[in-house]
Amino acid sequence: IVLTQSPATLSLSPGERATLSCRASQSLSNHLIWYQQKPGLAPRLLIYDASNRATGIPARFSGSGSGTDFTLTISSLEPEDFAIYYCQQRSSWPLTFGGGTKVEYK
Amino acid sequence: EVQLVESGGGLVQPGGSLRLSCAASGFTFSSSWMVWVRQGPGKGLVWVSRISTDGSATGYADSVKGRFTISRDNAKNTLYLQMNSLRVEDTAVYYCATYCQVCPSDYWGQGTLVTVSS
Fold first, then answer.
1. B44/A35 CB distance under 8 A
2. Digit-coded pLDDT (tens) for A21-56
3. How many Å lie between the alpha carbon of A33 and the closest alpha carbon of chain B?
4. Which end of chain B has less neighbouring CB within 10 Å, N or C?
5. What is the pLDDT of residue A27?
6. Are B20 and B37 in contact (CB under 8 A)?
7. Given a cut of 90, is residue B84 above it in pLDDT?
8. Which helix (H) or strand (E) holds A18?
């Protein structure tokens, strides 16, 4: 299953809303994960099963979608949110990741 | 506190071998499926291999099938990745992580760098 993330880069300012997209080549039901990764660190689980916030994740992060189209929304960017975001499908093996969206300072 | 600590990375020549280890603590290792994920320099995340709780079921990405072997020792709370016939394109940071299909949390190690170069 191929996951296509868009845009590749999102240039925004703190306080702005970020909308990230992940499109799958076939239906995933809801088995879509979102990770955040900062330089030199392991990925951090944000959203599981498309729309459920992981343990300890702030409410400004939300996920939506089903089937083949999914969205990660950050309602109001905090300075610590500037990072790379990956989607991952857990619908079937092999697990696959999208290519990532970098959220950078405008 | 949950910890996954990888070790065993390093510089190896093409065609060589390395064995990565991932020591787990702070959770019930024997109840967790585990995976290896790698990330090439400046690249994205790529799943490498998986193993079931008792080690009876394993799986591999096509790019490593026949060259890499995943295993675990639940008595030692340790996950392994035996990597043979290494190629330049295997150069990456290798992460071990817990896996389940629908979970509110997962755990990752800090990663270990494998560099394949002559």
1. no
2. 999 999 998 999 999 999 999 999 999 999 999 999
3. 9
4. N
5. 97
6. no
7. yes
8. strand A18-24
Q: What is the pLDDT of residue B25?
A: 98
Positive or negative, the CA dihedral B54, B56, B60, B64 is positive
Name the residue in chain B with its Cα closest to that of A100. B44
Residue of B70, B68, B72, B93 lying closest to B83 (CA atoms): B68
Give yes or no for A54 touching B (CB within 8 A): yes
Touching B: A residues 7-36, CB under 8 Å: 31, 35
pLDDT at A29: 87
Q: Which residue of A has its CA nearest to B6?
A: A42
Q: In 3D, which of B23, B117, B36 has the Cα closest to residue B78?
A: B23
Share of chain A above pLDDT 90, in %: 99
A52 vs B: CB within 8 A: yes
Are A97 and B111 a contacting pair at CB < 8 A?
A: no
Asked if A97 and B44 touch (Cβ cutoff 8 Å), the reply is yes
| Partners of A105 in beta bridges | A12
pLDDT of residue B74: 98
Tell whether B3 is within 8 A of chain A (Cβ): no
CA distances to A15, A45, B59 from A92, rounded to whole Å, are: 36, 19, 12
